[in-house]
Design a protein that fits this description.
The chain has 307 residues and is an alpha+beta fold. It folds into two domains: 146 residues, Nuclear Transport Factor 2, Chain: A (Roll), CATH 3.10.450; 148 residues, endopeptidase domain like (from Nostoc punctiforme) (endopeptidase fold (from Nostoc punctiforme), Alpha-Beta Complex), CATH 3.90.1720.10. Helix content is 31%, strand content 29%. Helix 6 packs across helix 7. Strands 1, 2, 3, 4, 5, 6, 7, 8, 9 and 10 form a ten-stranded antiparallel beta sheet that branches. The longest helix has 19 residues. It contains nine helices and ten strands. This is Putative amidase domain-containing protein. It holds the Pfam family Amidase_6.
């Protein structure tokens, strides 16, 4: 957070030297500084509370399940933002100093879920960090291209004069904003959360899209249903995103579209919309938190509208 506030590199003395995590931390700082100097996203202030959920010992490592509870204000905004980051960190003793050697984190999911998936896929934490480092290197190499591509604007669709379904994006966004800290129905609750929001905005259910159906709770299926029904139009620039629209993100680790969020705020100065989401609660966070500054490598905007 201090990097995003000052836009300068900050040494992290808690990370083990010469580790993959140290390399990742340095690359991520470089990406954040370059990104937010060239676009928007600097913050005026932030506050972080730490909640330790559990501590366990595994051989020479100490495993800590911890939540970062973050409040912040982006520069030039007239509102605050907040979110919870779920981390699992592994610490090792280096001559009497405990240093962090691994940090399991994904902005969209709880760290315990990611940790379980790593084990289920027979990955090691080292491989997990190596993949994240390589993704960051690719993003740094192509950052100017990402920024330039996001400046392009496509034509937005609108509601037809005699629409049989009228979508109220403000109503959808308000429901999402108000329910960020509601109890999730699923461990991976992001698309279920977004479906509830657009339903509150006026998108009607049918025999395919209804509460707890695949089209309701799955990232790709929801996108396909919206496009096929004529309720959605896909774009590849954040500039196309309006309040009440959906943004989805592509995960290189899983090789598919993995996360859905709701656009809940816009302003005249930011290059990115502000979004709110489950499973980890995120409220009015810049979409750049997920991409290009997060763990995802692509995104798509789904303009939700009536017909």
């Amino acid at each position: 957070m201090e990097v995003q506030k000052k836009l300068e590199n900050i040494d992290n003395t808690f990370v083990a030297e010469s580790s993959k995590l140290e390399e990742y931390t340095e690359l991520h700082s470089e990406l954040s500084i370059n990104l937010y100097k060239k676009t928007t996203g600097q913050i005026d202030w932030y506050d972080i509370d730490i909640k330790i959920n559990s501590v366990d010992k595994f051989d020479e490592l100490i495993k800590v399940d911890v939540d970062n509870i973050v409040k912040l204000k982006y520069t030039n905004t007239d509102f605050d933002s907040d979110y919870i980051e779920s981390h699992i960190i592994y610490l090792r003793n280096f001559d009497g100093d405990m240093k962090i050697v691994e940090d399991i984190f994904d902005p969209a999911f709880t760290a315990s879920e990611i940790d379980s998936q790593i084990m289920a896929r027979q990955m090691t934490e080292d491989t997990y960090m190596e993949n994240k480092v390589e993704d960051l290197k690719t993003k740094l190499k192509n950052l100017d291209g990402y920024i330039e591509a996001n400046k392009s604007k496509g034509e937005k669709g609108g509601i037809t004069p005699f629409a049989t379904v009228v979508y109220n994006g403000n109503a959808a966004a308000k429901w999402a904003y108000d329910n960020v800290y509601s109890t999730p129905d699923y461990d991976a609750d992001c698309t279920n959360f977004v479906s509830k929001a657009i339903n509150k905005g006026g998108i009607p259910t049918d025999s395919v899209w209804y509460l707890h159906s695949n089209a309701w709770i799955r990232v790709i299926e929801l996108r396909n249903w919206l496009i096929n029904k004529g309720y959605g139009t896909q774009y590849s620039s954040y500039s196309n995103a309006l309040i009440g629209d959906i943004v989805q993100f592509y995960s290189p680790s899983y090789g598919n579209w993995r996360h859905s969020v709701m656009v809940t705020a816009k302003d005249n100065w930011s290059s990115y919309p502000y979004v709110s989401a489950h499973s980890s609660p995120q409220r009015n966070v810049l979409a750049s938190y997920y991409y290009p500054n997060g763990s995802y490598t692509n995104f798509r905007v789904i303009d939700v509208h009536g017909k």
